[in-house]
Each structure stands twice: as structure tokens, then as C-alpha cells.
Amino acid sequence: MRTLLALICSGLFAVAAEPTPPPNDTTWLQTKGTLLFQDAFEREETGNGLKGIGNGWESATADRVPELKQADLDGGIMKISSATKEAGHAAHIHHDAGFADGGVVVRFKFPGLNQGEGLQLGFVDREVKDIHAGHLGYAILSQSNVTLIDHKTGVMNLAIRKQREEATAKKTKVTPELEALLKTKQAVAPLKADTAWHELTLVTEGDEMRCSLDGKVVARHRSEGFAHPTKRWFSFLVGSTVWIDDVKIYKVK
Fold it and tell me: Buried-most residue among 44, 66, 85, 228 (CB within 10 A)?
């Protein structure tokens, strides 16, 4: 009788290869990257204005409603409560970043103070003139899913934005070709939100964006806009309430 070893050597018995484990992007950032910035919010804000959060953060919508506090530093936590209705825009808070490949690690919590709490976070380059407000790519967390979206070559591209606005004005649909293109610019994965603290890691590596929760990749997507060479800002966009702590920004390339 031929031995198991002989069968393997002869190619008649195949041994299944071990599956490649998904990347741990927090470890990737820590071991391959350079820490550009970190903040644990162990201070008090200096007011409700553009630079009131301190440590280089800017609240782009703060000056629209200076009488309302949208970012409260309380016990080492940045508690964001957007005055979306009063400001006419969701709270938009950003910090300098500066990388091609890299990303962020953030602790966050939906505090359960309002229905439909969500969090949008990602990257911006205001120096690019053919993108609305420099929006590049984001992870959008809702109560039921997480969406990774390429804005640079999708809905925030000014030429595409114009086509969509014209279709809206005429009360018609965009062309089937544009609709098909836009579908390729995002990926949606299920998410069951809760009110616990979680560690979120969002990275771009080449043309891929990956989002992890508590060390596990929950969504990944490839799209050319994610490969933008300079993510100048890291930003939060919050339409309701969310708590943020321990932000770290890393550059790998």
C-alpha cells in the first residue's frame, strides 16, 4: 500500500492550503507606518469657533452657529452633537493628515441619545479643483450598514455632480451609463450598531479602502479615487450625535 507521503509526493493527494488570514490593519499601520498625529482629548475646548477643539482640529461648520456647542470635550471624550438644522450642514470636523497609503485608528461610540446616529469619516484634499469640497473617500456607518465610497471619481466629481444636478432639475434620471458607473464607486456591508465603544480602523492602500471594527475587516472596496496621492485632511462628518476618543493618524507611504 502506498504511504500517505508517497501519495502527496506523486500529486495524487492534495493538501488544502491554509487560507490567507485577513489583514489586521491596526497592526499594519503600527508596524509599517509613521504616527503623524494622536489625540486623547484630555483638555477643555476653548469655545465654539473654528479652532475651539484645539490641537490642530478645525470645525468647518462651527462659525455658522457660534452660539451652539457642537463639540464638547468632556472627560477625555469629544462628544459631537451636530446642529445640522440650524447650521444647514452636518458637523464637519477635520485635521491635517498627509499620506498616500495609511489611515486612522479611532475609538467611537453611538451614545444612543438620538435615533439614526451615524458617523462618516474619511479623507479630503481641498487643493484638487475638480472635486466638490475636495471630498476623496469615506466610510459611512449607519445603524444597519457600513458603506465605503469613492467620492473623487464618483458623486463629488464636478462633472458628474453637474450631470446629476441637471437631471434633478429636469426631474429625470441620470443616464444608465452614469448610474452603472456610480454603482462601482461604493460597497455596502451589513452592520448591527450598538451603544458600546468600538475601535475603528480606516485605511487606504493603493486603490483599496478597508474598514475594520475591533480588529476585523468589515468592508473593503477597490476604486481608483482611493489611490489619490495626498490625503491632506482626515475628517468627521456627523449629522446627529457620536462620541470620539483616541484618534491616531498614520502614514505608510
Answer: 228
